[in-house]
Amino acid sequence: MSTITPLRQRTIDTLTLGHYSERTIKTYIDWLARLGAHYRRSPADLTNEQVQDFLLYLIEERKLAWNTVNQALAAIRFLFEKVLARPRADLRVPARRKVTFRACAYSTEQVAALLAAAQNPKHRALLMSVYGAGLRVSEVVKLRPKHIESQRGLVRVEQGKGRKDRYTVLPDRLLDELRGYYRYFHPGEWLFFGRDRSKSMPIGSAQKIFYLIRNRAGIDHGGIHTLRHCFATHMLEAGADIFEIKRMMGHSAIKTTSGYIHISREHLMSVKSPLDQL
Predict the structure, then answer these.
(1) What are the structural domain ranges in the chain?
(2) Residue 171 phi/psi, 5° resolution?
(3) Residues 6+ apart with CB under 8 A from 274
(4) pLDDT beyond 50 at 135
(5) Can you tell me the distance from the alpha carbon of 241 to that of 131, in angstroms, rounded to the nearest whole number?
C-alpha cells in the first residue's frame, strides 16, 4: 500500500477547500504523479523549463489532444501557484485551432428503435432517463428515488456539472417506465445501482449498456451522450424555447445550447413548403 506524500496530501486538501469536484481532484493528482514519474523527482523540485519540456513531450511525442495537454497544464499551475505559492510561471501550450461544435443526433425513429432494443427494464429505464430528461451520464447514475418528483412532473439534478442544481422535465412515459422499474427492482439509495446495491452504477457500466443496446438496434455511431443531444434537438424541432432548453440541460451559456440549432435546420430542409404542394 503506497504512502501519500505530504505534498500530495497538501494538494488534495487545497483542491478540496477550493470546492473542486472529486473527478477534478483525481485528474490533477494523476497528472502531477505523471510529471514526477517522468523526471523521477518530486514536482516541487522541477523548474519551469522542465515543466515546459514535459508539455512539449506530451504534444510532440505522445501526440495528445489539446484538451488533454491543457488539463495537465491546469494541474501544474494549480500546484505551483496555489500549493507552492510560486509566482505565475510562463507555461503554455499552443493555442487550439477553432473548432465548430457539431453535435450529432439520432432521428426520433432511431431513438424509438434503440429503446425498443433495450429488453432489460433497468437498461431501458436508464436510457429513457437520459433521453427523456436530457441528462448527462454522470447525472443519471447519481439519481436517487427522491429526485423523481412525480407530483410536479420534474426531475431534480443535484450537483450537476459545475456543482449546480437544476430541474428538468419528467415526461409521462418516463414516469410510467420508472414506476414499472421501481416495482421490479426496488432500488434503495440509488435509482440506478451497480453490482453493489449500496453504490451508484459506475459511469463505465452505463456506457457499456448503451453500446450493447445501440449495436443491437443496428446503429453504428454515437455514445450515450448522443441521447442528450437528441433531447435538445428534438425539443427544438418541437418548438421549445431555446432558453428553456438551456435551463433544463444545465448549460452555463446560451452559445452551448445554440450548437444544436444546426441539426434542427437540417431537419427543416427536409420539410416541404406549402408552395411546393400547389
Answers:
(1) 6-83, 108-269
(2) -65, 150
(3) none
(4) yes
(5) 18
d(C-alpha 244, C-alpha 248), whole Å: 6
Report the CATH number of the 6-83 domain. Answer: 1.10.150.130
The CATH number that domain 108-269 falls under is 1.10.443.10
Round to whole Å and give the CA distance between 41 and 47. 11
The residues assigned a catalytic role are 136, 161, 225, 228, 251, 260
CA distance 97 to 66: 9
Kindly report whether the global pTM for this prediction surpasses the value 0.85: no
pLDDT at residue number 103: 60
Cell triple for residue 14? 487545497
Amino acid, res. 258 = S
pLDDT digits (tens, 9 = 90+) for 188-222: 999 999 999 999 999 999 999 999 999 999 998 89
What confidence category does residue 278 fall into, taking pLDDT thresholds of 50, 70 and 90? very low
C-alpha cell of residue 180:
414499472
